[in-house]
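Single Protein Entry

Contents — chain, fold
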Amino acid sequence: ITNKHSLLLISQPPLPQIIKSPRQQNSVANSPEKPRNFTIMIPYGTVEEASFALGRNLTWLETVWFDYSATKSDYYLYCHNILFLFLVFSLAPIPLVFVELARSVSGWFDRYKIQPKVNYSLSDMFGCYKDVMKMFILVVGPLQLVSYPSIQMIGIRSGLPLPTLSEMLPQLFVYFLIEDYTNYWVHRFFHSKWGYENIHRVHHEYTAPIGYAAPYAHWAEVLLLGIPTFMGPAIAPGHMITFWLWIALRQIEAIETHSGYDFPWSPTKYIPFYGGAEYHDYHHYVGGQSQSNFASVFTYCDYIYGTDKGYRFQKKLLEQIKESSKKSNKHNGGIKSD
């Protein structure tokens, strides 16, 4: 079996002596001499050869990855994205479905609902999910099937060693920053007269968003917003696993942002400059006339370019109303009735 796993070793002058496993000695001995300062691909077909090439034992995760992916093509591995996206689109919003149903029945979670006058039935939410799955089957899935050449072009790898946490976290952070900045400008285009009327109005059919509505959009919007998502890995390519994780996290973030609930215990509350559900909900509430809160993840673009003024004004006004109401209730509570 010819194995695609490989290890990248970059030589430095003087040209180092490369230690080869017995399997590699014959093939390398007959190969032409390479110039100095070049990248050498050292293939290996077994766990033992991989350990020999890495100069250490494989970790448990690397062994699992090797056993699973050794005989599979990179295209096959890339197409796992279809499965992951399906699972995220289908499963991640389910807790929000139970929250919405519990709130409508017993009033639980009312205090966290951003637009409490809006209620969604199970039928409403399932209808949204069906529309999203239709878009998934007709647009997202086929797009994944034909976009593999772009993954090859930018150099996303699938071999060993697996990326460490210290490698993945900075890459994911860069991906979120690049996506957020690029998405901001694409989103602003969608709120031009032509962009909104012909494309973006579909997404704004939900003036009070729900989790399943995060990917609910016109097919052209789905395609165009794929560009910001792909730009990060294109600029800073990493491992296939990092790419999978990025796609999943980006969709989970979008679902949380469209949840319609502002939970104080959400871990995203501790992320600096993070927008979140309350921030994006205002954008949907205003609707087609909205010229505020365009950013997908963070708030710095809206602040820098002055597109959060309406949101900040309304938020300040609501805080003043709440404070005035508290003072009024406190005053009335001190008056004795006859």
In short: DSSP finds 15 helices and two strands in the chain. The chain has a mean pLDDT of 85.
